[in-house]
Amino acid sequence: MVYVGDFLSVDDLLFRPVHSLIDQSLHSRLGVETTNGDGFGIGWYGEGTIPAVFKDTDPAWNNPNLREIARQIRTPLLFAHIRASTGTPVQRSNCHPFRHGRWLWMHNGAIARFAELKRDLMLVVDASLYPEIEGSTDSEALFYLALTYGLTEDPPGAVARAVGLVEDLGRRHGIPHPVQMTVATTDGESLWIFRYSSERHTRSLYYSTDVVQLRELYPELEVLRELGDATRFVVSEPLRDLQGLWNEVPESSWGVIGPGRQEIRPLSPLPPG
């Protein structure tokens, strides 16, 4: 889940919605795994440009420290992630979101047969970035490949090249559908989202409708009056069932979502170069 808008309590964002991320960690409706208990993480922006990160290997529904700090944090931009391991160890360094300088990154999906591709992928990561890699996941590897290909200057192009590299190596190793991903990344100012899979059957991803429009549709809903005009959410699963609230990100697409901004474009892998 991503929240962008006015300063808001993390407790309200994580625990208050009907189908909150905490509820989804136990009862996912659309995910491949119905239970996501292999750790969690949140990343948020407050003072300065470098985001703070809090991650743990406990299930999100059973971590008292998360509830304690969530009551005290107010932020205009929150990344929150619950993890179901696809084979790598359950450890803090493998929990999302991942951070590089002012950037945050989180990923839902997998690189198929990652263990077979890992060495070739890691050799592509820029030597100056490689020492920052703390964990062993395909998600973090994808982040550092995107950084290598210029994420901080051209997010769509960098992700397209990272995907192109994985698909190229996948073909060489006889892996028919190597990429499955929904991704969110931010520098604290803009938010980019991506939905793509090699088999063109990608896990779900949604963004919320402009709050001003929603208030016109549902003037009786108090929660909409509490949200600022700039509010936007990006989620793997809707936080509540409300017609007109959620828009599915199209298959094979990238987008920029934020206050007063909504741009969705096709995503095609690029040769890594």
Automatic annotation (TrEMBL):
Pfam families: GATase_4 (PF13230)
Keyword Transferase belongs to the record: yes
GO molecular function, one term: transferase activity
InterPro entries xref list: EgtC-like, Gamma-glu_amide_hydrolase, GATase_2_dom, Ntn_hydrolases_N
Alphabetic keyword roster: Glutamine amidotransferase, Transferase
Gene3D superfamilies listed in its UniProt record: Glutamine Phosphoribosylpyrophosphate, subunit 1, domain 1 (3.60.20.10)
Domain Glutamine amidotransferase type-2 per the UniProt entry, residue ranges: 1-273
The protein's name in its UniProt record: Class II glutamine amidotransferase
